[in-house]
């Protein structure tokens, strides 16, 4: 099946094949770039959760970019004990040699080698959508985690807002009337590495929690925008590129507010153990929606 091809491609994805790629990889350590600004705003809303569990053990999945997810999380809560993992060993090995990370493991997210509940949390940022069989990874992350798992991923834009859906139907009708053809809505959802881009949705994580009788999920939407060159330019007020990125993010929010689009990204937490009320309140202040899941009335009947 294609998953074996995907594993092979993803395993080699961080091997630098050009000087330009090497340059981009080195920019990931620059704290001042627009690209770093983009990523920091993805981690920051999780601060209440990270601070609520000092000293806990975390697993980062798909963390092959030098283990920088583990680094960024520890910048928020230094006491966390985090093991970065990825299918590709190359940059993780380099990061360990340079003492950027203490250790790492080469792991396939769909077949994790760890024991049940070996970690407190598992974290996956912008890697789920590369997996050929991502649901296997979800359940593996839940298996090895005691308290919960966290994803930061592209948000599924379907079902579309009602107004956007109506507008698309009108545009498609006009195109067909002129003899044009309508491309499949997922035709553009492939990446150069060959994978289909699996997006995540609030409803999907809710159903995972419901199916496993878990207590709660938390979700938060946000908009992001990438422009070529953000890796090389500082996030300063003098930067035209930075202004463009912020303008695009603001425009994306406006389209969402007008019912013309869905948010581009989602942070999703699936809890195996319910955090304390104070932590949940702090997450709400970070614009998380907390969904306390109902329990199956047909189980544990006396």
TrEMBL record:
InterPro entries referenced in this protein's UniProt entry, alphabetically: Methyltransf_11, SAM-dependent_MTases_sf
Entry protein name: Methyltransferase domain-containing protein
Keyword entries, A-Z: Methyltransferase, Transferase
Domain Methyltransferase type: 68-149
Any one GO molecular-function label of the UniProt entry: S-adenosylmethionine-dependent methyltransferase activity
Family matches, as SUPFAM superfamilies: S-adenosyl-L-methionine-dependent methyltransferases
Keyword field contains Chloroplast: no
GO biological process, one term: methylation
Membrane spanning residue stretches: none
């Amino acid at each position: 099946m294609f998953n074996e091809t995907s594993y092979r491609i993803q395993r080699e994805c961080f091997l630098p094949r050009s000087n330009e790629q090497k340059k981009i990889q080195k920019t990931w350590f620059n704290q001042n770039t627009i690209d770093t600004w983009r990523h920091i705003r993805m981690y920051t809303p999780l601060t209440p959760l990270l601070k609520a569990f000092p000293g806990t053990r975390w697993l980062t999945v798909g963390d092959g970019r030098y283990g920088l997810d583990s680094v960024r999380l520890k910048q928020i809560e230094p006491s966390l004990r985090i093991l970065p993992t990825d299918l590709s060993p190359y940059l993780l090995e380099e990061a360990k040699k340079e003492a950027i990370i203490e250790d790492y493991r080469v792991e396939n997210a769909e077949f994790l080698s760890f024991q049940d509940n070996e970690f407190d949390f598992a974290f996956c940022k912008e890697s789920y959508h590369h997996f050929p069989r991502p649901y296997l990874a979800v359940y593996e992350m839940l298996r090895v985690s005691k308290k919960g798992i966290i994803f930061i991923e592209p948000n599924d834009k379907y079902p579309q807002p009602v107004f956007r859906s109506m507008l698309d139907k009108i545009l498609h009708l006009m195109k067909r009337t002129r003899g044009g053809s309508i491309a499949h809505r997922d035709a553009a959802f492939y990446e150069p590495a060959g994978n289909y881009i699996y997006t995540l949705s609030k409803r999907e994580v809710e159903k995972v929690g419901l199916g496993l009788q878990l207590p709660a999920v938390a979700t938060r939407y946000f908009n992001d925008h990438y422009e070529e060159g953000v890796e090389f330019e500082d996030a300063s007020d003098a930067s035209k590129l930075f202004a463009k990125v912020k303008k695009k993010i603001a425009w994306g929010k406006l389209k969402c507010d007008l019912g013309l689009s869905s948010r581009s990204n989602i942070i999703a937490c699936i809890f195996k153990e319910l955090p304390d009320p104070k932590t949940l309140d702090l997450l709400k202040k970070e614009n998380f929606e907390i969904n306390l899941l109902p329990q199956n009335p047909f189980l544990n009947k006396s």
